[in-house]
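Supplementary Text 2. Reproducibility record for the structural model of the 205-residue chain.

All settings were left at their defaults, and a single model was retained for analysis rather than an ensemble. We include the record here because the model underlies the residue-level annotations in Supplementary Table 4.
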Amino acid sequence: MYKKYIAFLLLFQAAVLVTFLNVKGIELNRIIAAPAFRLTLEQMQEENCVDYMGILTKAASGQRVVDYGVLEREFLYEVDTEDYDALLRIVEAEAGCEDETGKLLVANVVLNRVNNERFPDTIQEVVLQKEKGKTQFSPVANGRFYTVEVSEETIGVVNRALCGEDVSQGALYFAARKYANPERMKWFDTHLTFLFEYGGHEFFS
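Retained model, structure tokens:
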């Protein structure tokens, strides 16, 4: 009789224990499945909302967050010190008062000539080239090319051009009609193909 009672009691305790463990297991699963943290709109407003939004964006993306430095861009053109200086000076002299695009266009034209078989093969030779005794760029003729002070903006633009940034549509010539010799502009209009105008220059191919 006592043995049956003790066996029944042990069986009952075992059943209670199993039920308790199952309930705890369900609760544990809920905890595991719940978000690691939860912020209400009010809490975000009270704290630094920008910081929290950054954390949430990174957490929700599922991607690794990797710190990286500024990627260095490589020049597509091999230039020595003389070529680099010549390009800086001609861009500053021709477009020092223009915006970055205006400067980039001048640099592009010089580099387009370097790549064209009708012109010399180096930047310095292109910039200093003479045809029938006349220079190709007016700042070389009037001496401004040699005295100009190159700005930091011009350096940045020239580096972009040397890295391959090109907005010139293949232009090989440019001229400021407002200041150019009328006879020279007449030659531009009759012998070249007009491409576009930007800033104070017209560009031709």
